[in-house]
């Protein structure tokens, strides 16, 4: 671990967990997930030694393989176990003899199985690990992704760190969250998949993230809570310092049964959990997609000056539906002042369009630099209206089949060029702008959409997969801001 952390008296008690000097992967074989841990650690550039452990192999991915943790020549801080639960007694003793500080149990087949002997084994693992000076992450989890330390648990995660922490009881949800939101610009300080939480649990990690200077936003997926009072204290501490966005799994009877089978979690009362989150000041969401969208909103659209949105888009019917979506989610779509409408009428094609709000503009069909300039000017005028707090531009990189004589990618390329100019010009607006994107239905449009998302987040602009999801996320952001502002002024 870093020298300043090893010597610092004020570091959080769990800080060392996220800064190992070396990692051993027990059970690395060409037919196991252990290989993925080794390969992904090498891909992201873990700076210290990586030790594959397998008594039946001499080499894994070009790295020397050791028969046991005890026989590794150098110090080992962090061990990932991907072997059968029945072999853990021996592995725990090996780790203790080696002075290992953190044991991540990817291994499943413990308390979540419902079998008494497996539950007893899980309890023994924690008890013996504590006796040997180790902390346990898991079992039945993916473990840690800490880009600043070169830690990861799968391929393809971004190597650069960010300011968002994710605490997730589910490894699959954690992986999906990172893969999806990284395409929209999120980068991470810590991602923690903690599974059965037999030792370190949701309260430990919330308390840590509350203190972590590298974390500005906390997202969480929780199925069950080990200690309700302790969880409330940790959640309240975290939510008093930074936004905490939380998704509760197992809210129904069927979901509760699934949670018990998944991570041995007793889901508890949804009503009690809701009250607990409300009193702590955490923001609850109702789906993984909403957790993704709201976190993106907090990262790129906060602070939101107010609920009044100016909508710029093409299509009369879509304008109507968009206004409904935004209004029903708790935002407002006020008519633009007469002066703004008059200014828009100077360059907006009036046939089949509207300049009231939403602004139904048809400038993009013109193509070329002129279309980009007109769309950027439309956004500028809407943003300058005194009764508008922010602008939402609803765009698509594909609108129907190509025109006669055009190649299949011509329209996509034209729209990409237009929107790139618009982003460049909109980044200097005095009010926030966000983009929502219409679905695409060609390979070239999908690739252009991914490139456009990158352009947006590099300019600090939020972009959402569609306008309905944008409406939910932005409304939750604004109302969370209002709630915290009122709490602050009442103190």
Give me the CATH fold name of the largest domain: Rossmann fold
- Which regions contain 5 or more consecutive residues with pLDDT less than 50? 1-8
Percent range of helical residues: 40-55%
Largest sheet: 6 strands, mixed
Class from helix and strand fractions = alpha/beta
The domain count comes to 3
Overall outline: elongated
Number of helices: 16
CATH class of the largest domain: Alpha Beta
- Could you state the CATH homologous superfamily of the largest domain? Succinyl-CoA synthetase domains
Estimated radius of gyration: 26 Å
Strand content: 5-15%
Summarize the structure.
The protein is of the alpha/beta class and 491 residues long. Helices cover 42% and strands 14% of the residues.
Features:
Rossmann fold, 3 domains, 6-stranded mixed beta sheet, 491 residues, 18 strands, elongated, 5-stranded parallel beta sheet, alpha/beta
In terms of topology, how is this protein built?
Elements: H1 3-7, E1 23-26, H2 34-44, E2 50-53, E3 59-60, E4 63-64, E5 78-81, H3 88-98, E6 102-105, H4 116-131, E7 135-137, E8 143-145, E9 164-168, H5 171-182, E10 188-193, H6 202-211, E11 217-222, H7 228-239, E12 244-248, H8 253-263, H9 270-280, E13 283-285, H10 288-300, E14 309-313, H11 316-328, H12 338-345, E15 359-360, H13 368-384, E16 390-395, H14 410-426, E17 433-437, H15 443-458, E18 463-464, H16 467-490
Parallel strand pairs: 1-2, 1-5, 5-6, 6-7, 9-10, 9-11, 11-12, 12-13, 14-15, 14-16, 16-17, 17-18
Antiparallel strand pairs: 3-4, 8-10
Helix pairs in contact: 5-10, 6-7, 7-9, 10-16, 11-16, 13-14, 14-15
